[in-house]
Design brief:
Length: about 170
């Protein structure tokens, strides 16, 4: 069954110049890349993305981490992969959450580390299940950013929308 999954190359992945390596490793999955963009992560987006972690003792550090405050690189690369068994395939290539427990040949096993403050810096995020993937993809992307219509959309008239535009 075709699935979609969100991948984020986290600020440590970017600062270590791992974008190419990570994309090359993920391409072993033969999944289709259907959306990609660089995102400056706001406090609101970071907290929404990690809302299920809010009771963890490391939550504040985790928010700083995904915002890029620990690496002075305030951006992440957000990507959507699509294809058969996408969620499992990407999680398998990514490896365990804890980079010390991840298989050494996995992406997290190869490039992750645990900081002295105890945060798992594991270079990428990958959705865990279809519900999480849907929530996360809708959080990080607009329908027109993605070239496959896997979630229903509708045309809405938005008249009072204020947005940044080219001057
Ligand atoms: P995953 O990213 O593998 O889905 P979780 O959703 O459980 O893992 O956690 C989100 C992120 O929080 C992890 O990728 C990691 O950066 C960090 N994290 C999770 N658990 C711990 C932990 N026990 N100690 C330190 N950091 C953690
Ligand atoms: Mg998770």
């Amino acid at each position: 069954m075709n699935q979609q999954t969100l991948v984020l190359i986290k600020p440590d992945g970017l600062v270590k110049s791992l974008t190419g390596n990570i994309l090359a490793r993920l391409s072993e999955s033969k999944l289709e890349l259907v959306a990609a963009k660089m995102v400056r992560v706001t406090e609101k987006l970071a907290k929404e993305h990690y809302k299920h972690m809010k009771d963890k003792p490391f939550f504040n550090e985790l928010i700083k981490y995904i915002k890029g405050e620990l690496h002075d690189r305030r951006k992440v690369m957000a990507i959507v992969y699509w294809g058969p068994d996408a969620i499992k395939k990407v999680r398998q290539l990514a490896g365990e959450t804890n980079p010390e427990e991840a298989e050494v040949t996995s992406i997290r096993g190869s490039y992750g580390r645990i900081t002295t403050k105890g945060i798992y810096e594991n270079v990428l995020h990958a959705s865990t299940n279809p519900e999480e993937a849907e929530r996360e993809i809708k959080l990080w992307f607009e329908p027109d950013d993605i070239i496959v219509d896997f979630y229903p959309t509708e045309i809405k008239e938005i008249s009072k929308l204020k947005k940044r535009a080219w001057a």
